[in-house]
C-alpha cells in the first residue's frame, strides 16, 4: 500500500506528487491542513520534523521531499527521471541541492511575508508565539516571526529574493542547452524547481522573469505536461486560488524596489 501525507499547496508536497504523477503511480491521499495537524503526535511519529510530505510504502516510511522523489524514481517503473550520464546527473543534483539548501527556506519567507501574513497577524501575539513554539525548527520559526512583524520590510526578505533570482538565472541559463533543466529530458531537476517558480507565480511575482525568456518558456513547458494538472491543479480549491489572488497589498511594487536595491 502506498500512502502520501501531503498538503494541497505545500511546495514539497508538489514535488512528491509530480514524481508520482510522472511515474503514473496512484496513492492513498492523507491530506493535512497544515494548520496544526502536522504537530499531531501520531503524525510526528512518522515525521519528527512535522512537515510534509511523508510517503509510507508498505513498511517503509520516507520523509524529505528530495528523498521521496528519488525513492519514487528508483522504486517504480515508467520513464526514468534521472539521466544516465554522470555530468547530466550532477546537474540534477546541483538543482536539488540549491532547492534544499537555499531556495526552500527563502520560499517560506516570501510566502509568509505576503499571502500568509494576514492570518498570522489575526492570531494575536500570544497565540502566534504558542504556534511557533511547536515547530521543531527554530530557524523557520524565527523567520515566520520576523516576516509576520515586518512583512516585506523584514531584513531576511532581501536574501530570499536573491536566492529566487539565482534560481531563475539557473533555469534561464539551462534553457540554452535544452528544453529542460538537465538537458533534453524532463527530470527530477524540473520537478524540484517547478513548485518554487509556481509559488512565485501564485504570489503574483511572475514579473521576476520578465527579462528571462528561458524561464517563461520552461515554465509553460512544464505546466503543459499532464503531470502538472494531476499533481498541482487538481489539488487546488477555489479558496486556495482566492487566497493567493486577492491578498493585499500587492507585493510587486515593494519586491521590485528591493530587487533594484539588491
Summarize the structure.
This protein has 13 helices and 4 strands. With 262 residues, the protein is α+β, with helices and mostly antiparallel strands. It has a 4-stranded mixed beta sheet with strand order 2-1-3-4, with helices on one face.
Q: Can you offer a commentary on this structure?
A:
The radius of gyration is 18 Å and the shape is globular. The longest helix has 28 residues, at 86-113. The protein has a four-stranded mixed sheet, covered by helices on one side. By secondary structure, it is an alpha+beta fold. It starts with a strand and ends with a helix. The protein has 13 helices and four strands. Helix content is 60%, strand content 6%. The mean pLDDT is 96.
Please write out the topology.
Blueprint: E1 2-6, H1 11-23, E2 28-31, H2 41-46, E3 54-57, E4 60-63, H3 65-75, H4 86-113, H5 117-123, H6 125-132, H7 138-150, H8 156-174, H9 188-202, H10 213-223, H11 226-231, H12 238-246, H13 252-261
Parallel strand pairs: 1-2
Antiparallel strand pairs: 1-3, 3-4
Order of strands in the sheet with most strands: 2-1-3-4
Strand pairing plus helix content: what structural class? alpha+beta
Low-confidence stretches: none
The percent range for helix content is 55-70%
Gross morphology: globular
CA-to-CA gap between the ends? 49 Å
What is the strand content? Answer: 5-15%
Element order: H for helix, E for strand? EHEHEEHHHHHHHHHHH
Mean pLDDT: 96
Count every helix, treating DSSP H or I runs of 4 or more residues as helices. Answer: 13
In total, the number of strands is 4
In this structure, how is the largest beta sheet organized? Answer: 4 strands, mixed
Rg, Cα atoms, Å? 18 Å
Amino acid at each position: 500500500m502506498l500512502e502520501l501525507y501531503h498538503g494541497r499547496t505545500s511546495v514539497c508536497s508538489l514535488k512528491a506528487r509530480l514524481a508520482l504523477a510522472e511515474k503514473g503511480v496512484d496513492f492513498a491521499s492523507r491530506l493535512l491542513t497544515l494548520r496544526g495537524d502536522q504537530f499531531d503526535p501520531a503524525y510526528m511519529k512518522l515525521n519528527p520534523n512535522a512537515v510534509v510530505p511523508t510517503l509510507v510504502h508498505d513498511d517503509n516510511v520516507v520523509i524529505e521531499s528530495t528523498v521521496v522523489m528519488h525513492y519514487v524514481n528508483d522504486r517504480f517503473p515508467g520513464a526514468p527521471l534521472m539521466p544516465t550520464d554522470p555530468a547530466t546527473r550532477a546537474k540534477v543534483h546541483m538543482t536539488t541541492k540549491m532547492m534544499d539548501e537555499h531556495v526552500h527556506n527563502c520560499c517560506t519567507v516570501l510566502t509568509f511575508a505576503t499571502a500568509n501574513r494576514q492570518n498570522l497577524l489575526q492570531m494575536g501575539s500570544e497565540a502566534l508565539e504558542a504556534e511557533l513554539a511547536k515547530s521543531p525548527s527554530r530557524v523557520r520559526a524565527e523567520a515566520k516571526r520576523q516576516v509576520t512583524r515586518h512583512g516585506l520590510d523584514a531584513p531576511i526578505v532581501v536574501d530570499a529574493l536573491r536566492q529566487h533570482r539565482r534560481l531563475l538565472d539557473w533555469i534561464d541559463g539551462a534553457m540554452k542547452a535544452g528544453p529542460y533543466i538537465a538537458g533534453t529530458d524532463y527530470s527530477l531537476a524540473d520537478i524540484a524547481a517547478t513548485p518554487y517558480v509556481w509559488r512565485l507565480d501564485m504570489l503574483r511575482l511572475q514579473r521576476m522573469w520578465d527579462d528571462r525568456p528561458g524561464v517563461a518558456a520552461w515554465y509553460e513547458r512544464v505546466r503543459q505536461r499532464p503531470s502538472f494538472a494531476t499533481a498541482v491543479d487538481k489539488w487546488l480549491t477555489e479558496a486556495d486560488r482566492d487566497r493567493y489572488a486577492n491578498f493585499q497589498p500587492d507585493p510587486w511594487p515593494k519586491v521590485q524596489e528591493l530587487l533594484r536595491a539588491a
